[in-house]
Amino acid sequence: MKEVAIIGAGITGLTAAWKLQQQGIPVRIFEKRNQPGGSIRTIEENGYLVEEGPNTLQLSSHEHEEFLKDLGLENELIDTSPTAKNRFLVRYGAPLAAPLSPLQFLKTPLFSKKAKCRLLLEPFIFRPNYKTEETLANFVQRRLGHEMLDYAINPFVGGIYAGDPEKLSLQYGFPKLYRLEKNYRSLILGTLKLQRQKKREGTLYKTRSVSFKSGLQALPVAIARDLGEQLILNAHIHQITKSNKWRISWSDKEGNNHDDLFDAVISAIPANSLPLIDFGITSQHLLSPLSEIYHPPVTSIAMGFRKEDIPHDLDGFGMLVPSKEPFHILGTLFSSSLFPNRAPKDHILLTTFI
Question: Other CB atoms closer than 10 Å to residue 298's CB: what's the count?
């Protein structure tokens, strides 16, 4: 039977390996670090439960729930607190609650009257001929106006991707928005039509932001447990070459060298790390452009405080900071407001991203 090698045991590599294993396909996954999960790390210290990387997992389909059930994690799952429904955006130097309904949008001080009127024109904006690739910034300005770009899309993109809307592709970075305009002409009308269609078909799913009682690291740990000996940690790849099959030359944590043959190889490492692997003389130059792909460096800072020392109610998910505001952070999550047992009694935990 054909065997597949996977390079990298972050969440992408782990789920790919798990899916192949469920289909009866032999798989081996190589990870250079001493634990799986990539950037997903959970730390317990002094009564705080801190996430080094992602803080929440977004479930957007029944398949996601089935996946967690198959891993035996359904009883560990916890939803974000209903009291943390607010999302804050910083404007005029202070966090303001983002509107959650059309009525709140009309009343919010986040956006000017001009910006609100401009948004109402969105269904009447014609779509282009798509002759050239468009940036997210150009798309948002064209459809929603400049203020929506600066104080809605910019902080969202910064908080989720640490990215710049001027440099992100609409079609490939935000395919849902691209398809909404292309298929329905309008973002607002398209969203309403899709919701009605999914409701009729019974496929409408309310997206959930979740974590686990012991933190997000429970997910890669559960997948690694199912993979068993197929997951090789502390594995250093020296060369990958192709003849009739893929040959992977690697060494284990004791320094022993191995040469193994595979029918297919899946790369699940950052794109700009791929050229660092020796693929032989004939193909190495084809990978060199990948080294130029920029991966923004992001650091998360976890801070614990006495609850009585924080004047804000922290009644929300967190706050995002537009680049136009005079602060040098991407945003802050109200971590102890999101999930229980993230901080000691009468204390709170904030996670800030820079």
Answer: 13
The encoded tokens of residue 255 equal 């320094």
pLDDT 10s digit of each residue in the chain, 354 long?
Answer: 689 999 999 999 999 999 999 999 999 999 999 999 999 999 999 999 999 999 999 998 889 999 999 999 999 999 999 888 899 999 999 999 999 998 999 999 999 999 999 999 999 998 887 788 899 999 999 999 999 999 999 999 998 888 899 999 999 999 999 999 999 999 999 999 988 888 888 777 788 999 999 999 999 999 999 999 999 999 999 999 988 999 999 999 999 999 999 999 999 999 999 988 998 766 667 888 999 988 888 999 999 999 999 999 999 999 999 999 999 999 999 999 999 999 999 999 999 999
Q: How many CA atoms lie less than 13 Å away from 11 in the CB half-sphere?
A: 10
The whole-model pTM stands at: 0.89
Report phi then psi at 48, rounded to 5.
Answer: -100, 145
Neighbours of 229 (CB within 10 A): 6
SS3 letters for the chain?
Answer: CCCEEEECCCHHHHHHHHHHHHCCCCEEEECCCCCCCCCCCEEEECCEEEECCCCCEEECCHHHHHHHHHCCCCCCEEECCHHHCEEEEEECCEEEECCCCHHHHHHCCCCCHHHHHHHHCHHHCCCCCCCCCCEHHHHHHHHCCHHHHHHHHHHHHHHHHCCCCCCCEHHHHCHHHHHHHHHHCCHHHHHHHHHHHHHHHCCCCCCEEEEECCCCCHHHHHHHHHHHHHEECCCEEEEEEECCCEEEEEECCCCCEEEEEECEEEECCCHHHHHHCECCCCCHHHHHHHHHCCCCCCCEEEEEEEHHHCCCCCCEEEEECCCCCCCCCCEEECHHHHCCCCCCCCEEEEEEEC
